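// run 5 | inverse folding | seed 20
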């Protein structure tokens, strides 16, 4: 693909490295990234953190041809990773976003639009019902969204509906780079059978965003948000070189159908 658009997904439940293999891969990362992996206690968390970084470096390498050792990924104050601008980009607004939850780690990239990705999975503690558990999070939803969730049907359908709304909201705040500090309750999603998804922000419908929802399996959902680079928070706008992209170019890219995820194995992400 010549357009810098990628969607990759790794199922980490299929990857069972030995301690030595794992340590080798960690050792190939820049020192600050190594610490970001080893700070986790649980091996599952370390796996997600490592694969997240392998995806980021491999994607930048494959799309832009930058040698692995020369890639510099910085983070905004809100934590969103971006490629350091020292390099001459073929794609002015090249940006990417990673998410990891449960069995999956994914990455999405765009070269014109802003992109946010969220992967979400929900496990209800044994002693609680689905409804009891999700009630703890009701303040993140609007009245209309909450009604749709609790009236979705049996327990599994309620959970599924919850996950769909949640990952759409997160994909938006991850695209802008604001993170959860933005206030998920400020977003209200509308849809027709989970296609034609649109968002109202602080009660006002925004036409400048496109959303896509994926059921990865019965337990995991993913969503992609695409929007205008000028909607990024200030810290992330500084990571892009053409925030005021021409309208026509932007709309052409925004309206393209989402290409969907390509599965990748960790073995295909080895540092070069
Ligand atoms: N915007 C977009 N992406 C972000 C981000 C942000 N503000 N912060 C981190 N990310 C990326 C990272 O790549 C991270 O993975 P990595 O650490 O392995 O590289 C990935 O998103 C994690 O996403 P996800 O798996 O979906 O995690 P999550 O659901 O637990 O939460 C955020 C993700 C971004 C919503 C949440 O961590 C958040 O709100 N962070 C902002 C915190 C903040 O504002 N701090 C201010 C300090 S001054
Ligand atoms: Mg998330």
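// decoded
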């Amino acid at each position: 693909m010549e357009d810098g658009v990628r969607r990759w997904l790794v199922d980490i439940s299929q990857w069972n490295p030995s301690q030595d293999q794992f340590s080798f891969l960690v050792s190939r990362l820049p020192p600050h990234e190594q610490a970001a992996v080893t700070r986790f206690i649980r091996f599952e968390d370390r796996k997600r953190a490592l694969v997240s970084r392998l995806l980021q470096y491999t994607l930048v390498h494959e799309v832009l041809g930058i040698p692995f050792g020369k890639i510099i990924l910085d983070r905004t104050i809100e934590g969103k990773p971006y490629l350091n601008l020292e390099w001459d980009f073929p794609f002015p607004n090249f940006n990417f976003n990673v998410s990891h939850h449960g069995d999956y780690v994914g990455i999405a990239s765009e070269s014109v639009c802003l992109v946010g990705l969220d992967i979400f999975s929900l496990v209800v503690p044994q002693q609680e019902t689905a409804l009891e558990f999700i009630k703890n999070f009701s303040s993140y939803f609007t009245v209309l969204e909450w009604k749709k969730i609790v009236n979705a049907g049996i327990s599994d359908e309620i959970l599924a509906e919850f996950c769909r709304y949640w990952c759409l909201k997160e994909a938006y705040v991850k695209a802008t780079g604001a993170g959860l500090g933005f206030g998920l309750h400020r977003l209200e999603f509308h849809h027709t059978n989970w296609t034609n998804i649109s968002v109202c922000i602080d009660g006002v419908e925004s036409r400048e965003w496109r959303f896509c929802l994926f059921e990865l399996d019965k337990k995991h959902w993913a969503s992609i948000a695409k929007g205008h680079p000028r909607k990024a928070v200030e810290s992330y706008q500084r990571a892009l070189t053409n925030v005021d992209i021409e309208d026509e170019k932007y709309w052409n890219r925004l309206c393209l159908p989402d290409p969907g995820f390509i599965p990748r194995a960790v073995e295909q992400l080895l540092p070069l």
